[in-house]
Design a protein that fits this description.
Elements: E1 17-19, E2 26-28, E3 33-35, E4 50-51, H1 53-59, E5 64-65, E6 68-69, E7 78-79, E8 86-87, E9 90-91, E10 107-115, H2 121-133, H3 135-140, E11 142-146, H4 149-165, E12 186-192, E13 203-211, H5 220-226, E14 235-239, H6 246-251, H7 266-278, E15 284-285, E16 288-289, E17 293-297, E18 323-324, H8 325-341, H9 345-354, E19 358-362, H10 388-397, E20 402-403
Parallel strand pairs: 10-13, 10-14, 14-17, 17-19, 18-20
Antiparallel strand pairs: 1-2, 3-6, 3-9, 4-5, 7-8, 11-12, 12-13, 15-16
Length: 406
């Protein structure tokens, strides 16, 4: 069944600033542009598809498409001034990417994923999205679907098939500095069923995942140039590789593949990201950054033999539709203790003194150390607590309910 949209967006949204899920630029709703669908209009004329220079420059998309024209962006349809054909193709006024169907009508959450090179961001993102589409989605009574055809085909081809079909780790993220400073986010639409007596309808949320390459975080200049998108992120998934901490390297299981020594430390990445966020107007409230940050420590499977008996990291999270506050705080406390053992006290102090909303998570995307040939271990993919950080962020935004106290 085709979803019908109102002809005009609610008046309450008319002055609201929106953020493009593809280029992360801000604009008011009325500035949204339209793209002709190149169908024959009422006058019998039709527009010719051509390459959109702005779209190609900003995203690398050189496909031949209908021309872009100006109309009232508060409307959901507009008639092309040249051929009179009515179109529903709404596009970003900055990068000319086609906006998702319900853009401006539902919450639009931009989630930035950052971390140093070899921290496992791409693998983690792939497993996280796969889990939310399947096992975790069933648990939350939620569905996750691609927000556009490009995301659908790229996620399957470049990420999911590599890992789940070929059992090979996806290639590392291409640095924006080697790609004309372009980024290519994955955009999804999350629908969560009604939870509790006060919520009568499902909650729909647009999610934009931007996976910043580790090389883009190795100096302050590259942070300023290539991760300006963090400034408009609603939430941040920050992956800090424990194997880049001296104390943790000593405790890892024998045979663990270690990150290359020349890559930046977790403290260095966190410091540069923090400096960038603090430089944004209004980012810090009462001296601390207000953007929720899920600090994710991946590869916890290599420390399984070192975890104490009764550690919350040795059990599966509670299987409920809501975010379990008490369980999450137990994990947070355990990770704080491990940071002291791993010589990561500086990380904890920086988070305590600079961020108002943050939480520590210990996860394993694969469940076992990959082979030296960058292949999944013979035991297969056995993810552990990968969705916890994501569900916490959703609960911070009110998209998922909470239970328990702490």
């Amino acid at each position: 069944m085709r979803m019908s949209l109102p002809n005009k967006l609610p008046s309450a949204l008319s002055s609201k600033k929106l953020i493009c899920p593809y280029c992360y630029e801000q604009f008011p709703i009325r500035d949204i542009l339209f793209r002709c669908n190149t169908r024959t209009g009422r006058t019998g004329q039709r527009c010719v598809a051509k390459t959109d220079g702005i779209l190609e420059e900003r995203t690398g998309n050189g496909r031949e498409l209908g021309p872009v024209f100006t109309a009232d962006g508060r409307q959901t349809t507009a008639s092309c001034p040249d051929c009179t054909s009515e179109t529903r193709y709404r596009v970003c006024p900055v990068c000319h990417s086609q906006l998702p169907t319900q853009f401006g009508l539902v919450d639009n959450l931009l989630i930035a994923m950052v971390g140093s090179k070899e921290s496992g961001k791409t693998v983690y993102m792939t497993v996280l999205l796969h889990e939310v589409m399947n096992r975790v989605g069933a648990r939350l009574d939620a569905s996750l679907m691609a927000g556009d055809e490009h995301t659908l085909s790229r996620f399957r081809r470049n990420y999911e098939d590599n890992l789940y079909e070929d059992h090979r780790l996806p290639p590392g993220t291409v640095s924006a500095s080697t790609n004309d400073n372009r980024v290519d986010p994955l955009v999804f639409r999350l629908s969560v069923s009604a939870q509790g007596p006060l919520r009568r309808a499902p909650v729909h949320t647009l999610l934009s995942f931007f996976d910043a390459a580790g090389e883009d975080l190795t100096s302050q200049d590259s942070v300023d140039l290539n991760t300006r998108y963090l400034a408009n992120a609603d939430g941040i998934l920050l992956l800090l590789d424990p194997l880049q901490m001296p104390g943790a390297r000593r405790e890892a299981a024998p045979g663990t593949h270690m990150p290359s020594a020349q890559y930046d430390t977790s403290v260095g990445v966190l410091t540069r990201i923090t400096d960038m966020l603090l430089s944004q107007p209004g980012a810090a409230k009462k001296g601390r950054i207000d953007v929720p940050v899920a600090v994710v420590f991946p590869k916890m499977d290599v420390f399984r033999h070192r975890l104490r008996r009764g550690s919350p990291l040795t059990v599966e999270p509670p299987a409920g539709e809501k975010f379990d506050v008490a369980d999450s705080l137990d994990v947070h406390t355990e990770m704080t203790s491990l940071l002291r053992d791993w010589d990561g006290v500086q990380i904890d102090q920086l988070m305590r003194n600079t961020y108002r909303r943050y939480r520590y998570f210990g996860v394993s995307a694969l469940g076992a150390n990959p082979t030296q040939n960058a292949e999944v271990a013979a035991t297969g993919i056995q993810p552990y607590r990968v969705a916890d950080p994501f569900i916490w962020l959703l609960s911070e935004f009110g998209a998922v309910g909470r239970e328990g106290s702490g």
